[in-house]
Specification:
The chain is α+β, with helices and mostly antiparallel strands and 207 residues long. It has one domain (3-206): Glutaredoxin. 32% of the residues lie in helices and 19% in strands. It is built from 6 helices and 9 strands; from the N terminus they run H-E-E-H-E-H-E-H-E-H-E-E-E-E-H. The chain has helices spanning 3-12, 65-68, 85-102, 121-131, 142-151, 193-206; strands at 54-57, 62-64, 73-78, 108-113, 136-139, 156-158, 168-170, 174-178, 182-187. The strands form 2 sheets. It has a 7-stranded mixed beta sheet. A two-stranded antiparallel ribbon has the order 6-7. Helix 1 (3-12) packs across helix 3 and helix 3 (85-102) packs across helix 6 (193-206). This is SCO family protein. Keywords: Copper, Disulfide bond, Metal-binding. Cu cation binds at residues 82, 86, 170. Disulfide bonds join 82-86. GO terms for molecular function: metal ion binding.
Length: 207
């Protein structure tokens, strides 16, 4: 998938959220080193989000949060069988990373599957390969995935209909994390690739 296709997909994304809720905790500008980078719409105190995890990457290797978050990292929870939201959101994230690449910022896009029953490392490698050459796909045991989801306070719920093509309701936030700092911002679905790239660059410059 080329960048034009990614931009087209991202432009079709509908604003809104699937599952989960917003958390808004206002802080004074003097308390926040990244105040100039925030939109004030979503986030507030992202220090309450994120934490240790152990998962399996798209090559089958076991990795921890310390292995993954070694620089600016965009993290999204979803699943490869998702018919619309996940491809659109990840295409948007990938396009933002392409824009950041052009500006000299190295940002890692990460896709964590909440569907460990179907999302094998091989499927994740195929999915992420369409999006961006650096996008990292992660899965794990159901217990490992639940632990990672709890750490980031994401929501997901399997629609257990007995159909092998079941759907999963899930939250749709993208988290910006840094090593040593953890999550510093949360982006919603209404963020364009250009806006996300500008905001991420601001955070990187402010570290």
């Amino acid at each position: 998938m080329n960048r034009i296709a990614l931009a087209t997909i991202a432009a079709l994304a509908l604003a809104g959220f699937v599952g989960g809720g917003l958390y808004v905790i206002q802080k004074g500008p003097g308390d926040d080193r990244f105040a100039q980078c925030r939109s004030g719409r979503i986030g507030g105190d992202p220090a309450h989000l994120g934490g240790p995890f152990t998962l399996i990457d798209q090559t089958g290797a076991t990795v921890t949060d310390g292995d993954v978050i070694t620089g600016p990292t965009l993290i999204y929870f979803g699943y490869t069988f998702c018919p619309d939201v996940c491809p659109l959101d990840n295409a948007r994230n990938a396009e933002a990373v392409y824009l950041l690449d052009e500006r000299g910022y190295q940002v890692l896009p990460v896709f964590i599957s909440v569907d460990p029953e179907r999302d094998t490392p091989e499927l994740l490698a195929e999915f992420t390969g369409y999006m961006h050459p650096r996008m990292l796909g992660l899965t794990g045991t159901p217990e490992q995935v639940r632990a990672a989801s709890r750490a980031y306070r994401t929501f997901y719920s399997v629609q257990d209909t007995g159909d092998p093509y079941y759907l999963i309701d899930h939250s749709t936030f993208t988290y910006l994390a840094f090593p040593g700092l953890g999550v510093v911002e949360v982006f919603g679905r209404d963020m364009t690739p250009e806006e996300m790239a500008d905001r991420v660059a601001c955070f990187v410059d402010s570290v």
